[in-house]
Amino acid sequence: MKIKELKNIYKQVYELNDGSFLVSTKSQNEVRDVEYYAHTNIDEVYGMEGYWGMIDKNGNTIIEPKYIYPFIECGDNYQVMLPHDYKNIEGEEKILTLKHGLIDKKGNIVIPIKYLYMEVMDNIGKYFRVVDSETYKSGVLDKNNNIVIPFEYDFIYASPDLELMKKSKNCYRYPDNIYQVKVCKKDLYGVYDLKLGSEIIKPKYKHLKIRSYNRFLIGEDYDSCDTLINEKEEVIENV
Asked: From 161's CA, which of 60, 112, 209, 216 has a CA 20 to 30 Å away?
């Protein structure tokens, strides 16, 4: 099918490299102005609002058009968002919050679409930081929905410090693999090792940066972390 034909059926259409199409049954303004009430800048993060799905080049449905934003590709899967809580605003029911999860490229659910927030942690879509919608605690799931870090932290930093990011065409992207992440409890920071499955540094530092594997900068404030320590918390050098 051609885009011109599809635009007679769908409100938004984008052709993908493999010949399939992302399609939405509603326009961006229909959702933004009428249905979606956001008190954050979430609409600026995820792109064009709509009710998105996917069809193949012959017009057959691959993924039902029901997700509020276009899919975020994460390795072999897609991160998706569904409307959740509604609120009556000036006599109209509007979407108040979204739930996040993971589906495969045929639309099958991989990680249940029930989390308050979700963010991929690496460039290959292996690990995801998620926030529980009831406890508001952060944990980490792998792409098979296994709990890698339990839901007991106030925050887990999905984005590694710039020292670990890969620079490509004047922008930074996640590393392909990530092994250690910064965790936070009561405004104090430590390090969780994904390979070991445990904390290697308890959350007790005011500020901490992961510089490289088993190398961490600590200090009184983020911009002046000047003491380099290892996983045993031995001082390596002052920088």
From this structure: 112
CB-count burial class (<10 Å; 0-12, 13-18, 19+) for 227? middle
Q: Which residues contact 224 (CB under 8 A, 6 or more apart)?
A: none
Contact by Cβ (8 Å): 160, 175: yes
Is 23 in contact with 13 (CB distance < 8 Å)? yes
Quickly state the pLDDT bin for 214 (edges 50, 70, 90): very high
In this structure, what token pair is assigned to residue 211?
A: 């510089």
Strand partners, 24: 12, 52
Query: Token digits for 59?
Result: 């017009």
pTM of the full structure:
0.85
Specify the DSSP class assigned to residue 35: I
Q: CA angle, 146 as apex, 131 and 43 as ends, to 5°?
A: 35
Backbone angles phi, psi at 223, to 5 degrees: -75, -15
Give the tens place of pLDDT for each residue, 71-90: 889 999 999 999 887 777 77
DSSP assignment of 136-175 equals --EEEEETTS-EEEEEEESEE--SPPTTTSEEETTEEE--
pLDDT digits (tens, 9 = 90+) for 58-72: 999 999 999 998 888
